[in-house]
Amino acid sequence: MIRKSLVAAAVIAAGAISAAQAQNLRIGLREDPDILDPTLSRTYVGRIVYAALCDKLFDINEKLEIVPQLATGYRWDDPKTLTITLRDGVRFHDGEVMDAEAVRYSLNRHLTMQGSFRRSEISQIEAVEVVDPRTVRIRLKAPSGSFLAALTDRAGMILSPKAAEAAGRDFGTRPVCAGPFRFVERVAQERIVVERFPEYWDAGRIHIQRVTYLPIPDGTVRLANLQSGAIEFGERMEPDDIKTIRSNRNLRVVAVEELGYQSITINIGNGPRSETPMGRDARVRAAFELSIDRDALNQVVYEGMYTPTRQPIPPASPYHIADFKPEPRNVDRARALLKEAGVTTPLTVEMTVPNNPDLRQVGEVVQAMVREAGFDLKLRAMEFASSLQAAARGDFETYLVGWSGRTDPDGNIYSFTRTGGGQNDGRYSNPEVDRLLDAARAETDFEKRRDLYAKAIRIAFGQDHARIYLWHRKNIMAHSARLSGYRPVPDGLIRIQDMRLQ
Q1: Distance (Å, rounded) from C-alpha 501 to C-alpha 210?
Q2: Which tens digit of pLDDT belongs to each residue from 327-366?
Q3: What is the 3 state secondary structure string of 165-184?
Q4: Which CATH architecture has domain 58-164?
Q5: Which residues does 83 contact at the CB level (< 8 Å), separation at least 6?
Q6: At the top level of CATH, which class does the domain 2-30+180-258+475-501 belong to?
Q7: Are 462 and 430 in contact (CB under 8 A)?
Q8: What's the pTM?
Q9: CA-CA distance, 275 to 333, in Å (whole number)?
Q10: Would the CA dihedral through 298, 460, 409, 322 be positive or negative?
């Protein structure tokens, strides 16, 4: 009864917001984004907001092909020199012209700003040169098979130099980019509002006047808001919502295989909290992994809709390692490994879990599974953006966290696994893995590159158990039947181009 009352109250609150905002497409987000600065942000939901605010040099389409956005084209002058031509007549939301100097400024900001999460994604850059206002030349330190794909995400977002210089590290409180919508306001944990930018270079494809992003972490509440009409779009709905949505003639649902994964990051070298048996001994990490039944976990929480995995590369990718599969659960072997490591059981381990219902349930199921092997797992639920900040500063032992995925395998492994990687929160470090990842990044031959990734993955996750991968998800998106023009792309981003609300 209390649960139903809370859901009803949430629907009423969302309805009250919508009544004052006509012509508003309302999107229910699974979490509240972190800072809205493409250089400093990490969250997947932040990327959904950026799809409205910040165009990139390149984008991807439904077939995962790289297509121009702020760029009109590119050519490789040689294996280390990329020349990009830019669109004419593009303006930032502050009226400034988007040109080659703005591209040079933005790429250098991503490379050099303190705390940048883009640095490791584009660290191949040696220099960015302005050829003329519509042409940029990027010189790389070595040939790269991954660099162009990096420019289809936040590393390829171009910011207004004038606004970025004026705001400094506060840029994320009022971002100024060259996307179809400009920033209006943000109330933390409540809403982000953007409005149509009349001078957008592709304005003919924008038919929505305003978009309001509403963080609604509870899937039950998100579904209730969809059913009541308080929101028109709900992102990443739960698998058990599909039947309910399909039975409602006013709603539509689309499920798309995503590019990313859900995993457990282990603190191996990030500060004092890494000084644990889990952090110090790969045998203990292996025991923890062997205690988990991924298939059962998938069935219990997600009705078997997701794909259990042991690696960061999804099955749809040509780089997927088909024979590197999850090992069956083996509690006896796990106990033997703990004994071999000299661990006294029960061994207490803490796991940070983002505070939404399905991941809390995942934590509880894992808690019950690993108990049988001799682990006493304590769960620490945190708001999502706060959990990312805690992980970055080393305030965790293990961390249940997902990644939305990238088209190129480099985007799913390099910054998380290489020594010094921008998102390597556990501070895992292995010189041989570093060598293989660097070589894979520079390699342009597909077969050789796939072999390098396979070797790195077998060492990092088969030998060292640096991270425990659990499953590849489906992006389950639901929207009002009044909304048309939504294009499901495997990266899960909600592109407002061509969308109409009747």
Answers
A1: 11
A2: 999 999 999 999 999 999 999 999 999 998 899 999 999 9
A3: HHHHHHHHHCCCCCCCEEEE
A4: Alpha-Beta Complex (3.90)
A5: 74, 75, 76, 77, 131, 135, 136, 137, 138
A6: alpha beta
A7: no
A8: 0.84
A9: 24
A10: negative
